[in-house]
Amino acid sequence: MVSKTEETQLSNLETQVDNGGGGAWEYLCLVRKLKVRRSDRVLKHGLSILNDPKKRSSLGPDEWTLYEQVAVAAMDCQSLDVAKDCIKVLQKKFPESKRVGRLEGMLLEAKGAWAEAEKAYSSLLEDNPLDQVIHKRRVAMAKAQGNVSVAIEWLNKYLEIFMADHDAWRELAEIYVSLQMYKQAAFCYEELILSQPMIPLYHLAYADVLYTLGGLENLQNAKKYYASTIDLTGGKNTRALFGICLCSSAIGQIAKGRNKDDKESPELQSLAATALEREYKQKASDKLSLLTAALKGLKVSS
Amino acid sequence: MAEDLVLDTAIRDWVLIPLSVVMVLIGILRHFVSKLMRSSQVPDAKIVKEGQLIVRARNLRAGANFIPPRSFRARRFYFSNEENGLLHVPKGQAPNPQAQMFSDPNMAMDMMKKNLSMIIPQTLTFAWVNFFFSGFVAAKIPFPLTQRFRSMLQNGIDLSTVDVSYVSSRSWYFLNLFGLRGLFSLILGEDNATDDTQRMMQMSGFGFDPTKSLGAEKDSLDIVQHDWALPKFEQRAEAVLRKILS
């Protein structure tokens, strides 16, 4: 997670570097530390440092880190020649290194030579079966080839060992959603909520999945999670507001024939609707009529 | 009080300063030697998995109230059922760390390497100091001390009449041995190999048993009362919305 101060620091440095104000190395360090994806800029500024022998040698041992960073960025930008050169230099410096081996695997991957990359990765994994990055690369490779079921298989294998890695759980959840396997996705989102209970995005995604699953109980739960999203975001999440309206109307439809003794907070729905209306009035007044029509449709059915 | 002893300046130049310099150099040498000898430890898959498992179980315990009761119960069963729950360690199967240590030659080897890099230079320098500088009064502390410090400061001199504030060469060696840690962490960085105390702590923590923490986690998971927090959130959401609407 990137905090607000770091973000402003990053953007300040970014404008400074882009306008030729120096501080390229600091910028690159910050990008590396925050693990943000700014491949084009990293490539441009990193390369300008690397091509200047004086600047490069002033980095000392950090020079090699920069080579690695630029290589990865170059692969991301499809400048494979640059990446190749960087990796060659690293290879010369660290002939036996596994980290360089990983970069070579990634280069093969960037070229689209899947079989060779796979071979390179599996030979690296033989040496160190607990290399998380390589496991993840494999998942990414399967996904890039469109082989989603294989990606799921790899991810499951990875999560069997590294079961506290919430990023992997998130990836798995998103893959499951894309395959419409909502029950599995719901499990993954539960896992995410457990590991970071205060992040509203997970509550929202879980609610979406529950709503899609349907059924009275799931809908009620979905409504609860939409409510928690509203609480955690301070009512600023439009999707959650819509979710409340949709859930209430769907619950109303299902529970129409039955006895309504478990009547739960009818007020929430109307409050959400008013909040939505107000938000639309403020930000997109030309679409207000669409909203009112949609809300009316929901209310009629309930 | 006996009259002040006059220490020859040659003692300062040839005993006090060389001793300190040698101690520093040996410390630095030891750091690099142990760095060379350190074998990169490949973590065992099982240990990694257990660590991750504990983190996940702890998460479940902490965030239990945020997931629906049914999901919580399913997870708890998955973690702690008596047949094949992940946290359940069958009795008698827990590996004894002591036995494990002896069965794994690498582990013993590693410890031996560490110990050797610590003990050998120490014995050598001690022998060297003993041989060349035994019986020297090497320095004087500028403040008086009580008799209790005699064994600490005048190791190697068996005279009870010498004032306690004089330091013998052997004691100077010991003072250097233990007192240079701060200097090393300045020169060599924070986590240097010369830090003996830290190693001692590691050694005492060596008997750490992961299966025990698994069992403890299981027990505390078993007694968690699930109290779903989400129904309360509806009221809270209402309150939030009312607040922004008003």
TrEMBL record, chain A:
Belongs to the EMC2 family. One of its GO terms (cellular component) is EMC complex. The lineage of its organism: Eukaryota, Viridiplantae, Streptophyta, Embryophyta, Tracheophyta. It comes from the Eukaryota. This is ER membrane protein complex subunit 2. PANTHER family: TETRATRICOPEPTIDE REPEAT PROTEIN (PTHR12760). It is a peripheral membrane protein. It comes from Quercus lobata. Component of the ER membrane protein complex (EMC). Its main location: endoplasmic reticulum. Part of the endoplasmic reticulum membrane protein complex (EMC) that enables the energy-independent insertion into endoplasmic reticulum membranes of newly synthesized membrane proteins. The keyword Membrane applies.
TrEMBL record, chain B:
Keywords: Membrane, Transmembrane, Transmembrane helix. It is found in: Membrane. One of its GO terms (biological process) is protein folding in endoplasmic reticulum. It comes from the Eukaryota. The keyword Nucleotide-binding does not apply. GO terms for cellular component: EMC complex. The chain crosses the membrane at residues 14-33, 119-143. InterPro entries: EMC3, EMC3/TMCO1. The keyword Transmembrane applies. It is a multi-pass membrane protein. Its main location: membrane. Belongs to the EMC3 family. This is ER membrane protein complex subunit 3. It comes from Quercus lobata.
